[in-house]
Design a protein that fits this description.
Layout (H helix, E strand, L loop, with lengths): L1 E3 L2 E3 L5 H4 L8 H10 L13 H13 L5 H18 L2 H7 L14 H4 L16
Antiparallel strand pairs: 1-2
Helix pairs in contact: 4-5
């Protein structure tokens, strides 16, 4: 396994897929990095030279790409800011409801959690 910025990248993957194992780098950004460094997208991680791995690491550090811990803390701070200013999105975060306008009547079980069944009261039969 190649180790890049503290993350183990599997050897048998293509490098553009392997880079997506780093939180904050998706396929588009991965391709952008490799195109900039003139590294083939079809190259496997185990075929990379130590010089190429060093180039990738330096590119990420030089261009201030937010990854891993820094990105996670930034996202956490952004959500905290929304909560503090008490905006609509902040209220949705606080109530554990979908934030981006999704329907919640029949869906949103992932965000809302398992159903909480509320039992009906038994109806009292009237005597005649």
């Amino acid at each position: 396994m190649a180790r890049l910025i503290g993350i183990d990248i599997p050897d048998n993957k293509h490098i553009y897929i392997g880079l997506t194992y780093i939180y904050g780098i998706g396929k588009a950004r991965s391709k952008e990095i490799l195109d900039e460094l003139n590294i083939s997208l079809q190259k496997k991680v185990k075929e990379l030279t130590s010089n190429e791995i060093l180039k990738i690491k330096e590119y990420i550090e030089k261009n201030n790409i937010l990854i891993e811990g820094n990105l996670r803390s930034k996202v956490r701070l952004d959500i905290k800011r929304l909560l503090d200013i008490n905006c609509y999105r902040g209220i949705r975060h606080r109530n554990n409801l979908p934030v981006r306008g999704q329907n919640t009547k029949s869906n949103a079980r992932t965000r809302k959690g398992p159903r909480k069944t509320i039992a009906n009261k038994k109806k009292v039969k009237s005597k005649k």
